[in-house]
Amino acid sequence: MKKEPVKVREADPETRIGNFEEVVKGYCEEEALAEASRCLQCANPLCTGGCPVGIDIKKFIYHITQKDYRAAYLTVREKNNFPSICGRVCPAEYQCRKSCVFTKKGSPFASEQAINIHFLERFVGDYGKDNNLDVPEEKDGELSGLKVAVVGSGPAGLCCAGELARKGVKVDIFESLHKTGGVLRYGIPPFRLPWDVLDSEVNYLKKLGVNFITNFLVGKAKTVKELFEEGYSNVFLGLGAGVPSFLKIKGENLCNIYSVNEFLTRVNLMSAYKFPEFHTPVNIGRNVLIVGGGNTAMDAARVALRLQKINGFRPNTTVIYRRTEVEMPARRLEIEHAKEEGVKFEFLVQPKEFTGDQRGFVRKMLCLKSKLGEPDSSGRRRPVIIEGSEFELDCDMCVIAVGLKANQILINATPELKTDKNSDLVVDPETMESSVKGVYAGGDIVGGEGTVIEAMGMAKKAARSIIYNT
């Protein structure tokens, strides 16, 4: 008899939109065992091929069925440094779960019947975290004299530092902000990734001897050349993509139009949602529009809705997306959560112009309706504007979430670093070494916006290159 998927426990939508507490509660032991028992233990597990770092999914799920959670944890940690994080934020429906045999071949994302690999990964990750399980170190005496500078403490930087430190390499992480975590802290709301989960991973790296230097902007405070002169044998760049993209339409400079970076950074990193306890307020409108269809747009929409509720407004937040829901790159889970919480969606709509009042505050968005044409370079059908389809939407606040680009401060300060047409760093795909000898890179600074697990995959490759090429 076919077993049905075990639904994960979640906070009630009406309750959760009034706070920033974690929405997905995860599996308890009984639920994890029931879900793990659904795995067929395929002779040729396609799910592992769908994981960017190649976790032995079949093996760790088998260990769960045997209640050997320590072995399950160590199996995951062989490939994934941060299972508690990835189990919460990875787009599994586009990766491992999409490759599950329970998903029909050719499906754009995982079926509901696919094994909930990410929730099982989170279960063993949290088990390891809660039971203070350490991953065996593999210190190599020949590497103890190495000193590596890691620039950026996002997923790529943290992963690279961990890989090196476990081998006995001395690692200093330089972070431009006052707190560590990069996009994991400033870009992802705590209702998706609680800070104590992130802090536990950072603290583990500190136990390994990794040194964190915050409020330090490499490219300004020091150049890459100066790092080498100070005795660092290698430099890893995990800068991420922190420069916002804009619509470039009339009225975009009106007040209360935010880039998604500023909006989420104010709320997440600077705790604006706790004002006046924290002195970093953020304006919130009564009619909020979010432009974009990715995970960052979903985060912004769900944050805006909570701020409206907390400030006593009737929640009224709408996502504007120029294609249909099928083409949205956001996780299916995040889209469903947004809908459950009351976020509205306007599909096949493109902004044309913003209009404001006499004080310079946005009041309306002029929009155009679209239809889908032929596929573009992304493989998705291109939106085509319908002539004469203009209409207006009330808007006293808007968040632009249409993509992020690489930060150029360090790149401009290091002109010998080769970049592509998108201003991303060019690296050797096998070693992750840049055009400057001894300088490696990974994460969003290399291929544009990607996932946490993809950034980790690049960081692991770079760490191996640093170790074996030294």
Account of the 3D structure:
The chain is of the alpha/beta class. It has 3 domains: 9-130, Fumarate Reductase Iron-sulfur Protein, Chain B, domain 2 (Orthogonal Bundle), CATH 1.10.1060; 141-242 and 406-468, FAD/NAD(P)-binding domain (3-Layer(bba) Sandwich); 244-404, FAD/NAD(P)-binding domain (3-Layer(bba) Sandwich). Helix content is 32%, strand content 17%. It has a 5-stranded parallel beta sheet. Strands 8-16-9-10-11 form a 5-stranded parallel beta sheet. Strand 9, helix 13 (295-310) and strand 10 form a beta-alpha-beta unit. The longest helix is centred in the C-terminal third of the chain and has 17 residues, at 452-468. The termini are far apart. The model has no long low-confidence stretch (mean pLDDT 94).
Short description:
The protein is an alpha/beta fold and 470 residues long. Strand 13 (362-375) and strand 14 (381-385) form a beta hairpin. The chain is 32% helix and 17% strand.
Percent of residues in beta strands?
A: 15-25%
Q: Specify the CATH class of the largest domain.
A: Alpha Beta
Instruction: Please count the beta strands (DSSP E, at least 2 residues each).
Output: 18
CATH topology of the largest domain: FAD/NAD(P)-binding domain
